[in-house]
Amino acid sequence: MTLIWDTRFSLFTAVLAGLGRASAEVGAVMIVGGNIDGVTRAMTTAIVWFRRDLRLADNAALAHALASADRVVPLYIHAPDELGAWAPGAASNWWLHGSLAALAQALEQRGARLVIRRAGSALAGLRAAIKDSGATLVCWNRLYEPAEAARDSAITSVLVAAGIEAASFAG
Description:
- The chain is of the alpha/beta class.
- It has helices at 2-6, 8-31, 60-68, 90-109, 122-133, 146-161; strands at 45-50, 71-78, 115-118, 137-141, 165-169.
- The protein has a five-stranded parallel β-sheet, sandwiched between helices.
- The model is unreliable at 28-32 (pLDDT under 50).
């Protein structure tokens, strides 16, 4: 009994240090988005797939992603081969370069970075971006040309089958 009484301050300090360490670990897990059995939740990531709507203002897909996820990845996929005979010409590519640069600058001013991927298809680019980011939501503004609408419908089906939420908006 004397030994316990003599070491009471050391034991008290050790217990306090252990509790402090435990609370620090819980706090760190909560900050990075860990899921502690219903007490916290995992951080969610959404991809905003920019296409022709290379703007931040009045962008329904971007607004939905910002409202729905903790982290948003702005993405542009350059897949000119997918367009076949309708691939853009020199003037369109010049406009695209300038517009992407302006979008990237606007995003950087807000603390985000535009991810630009070159891919054989939009679906391949989206799959790679989803794998890299862990996104559970992909948002985009619709295109209305028949071939692009059909492609978007097929992409929606593939994403939903893979457990990824797909949300498209009037552009």
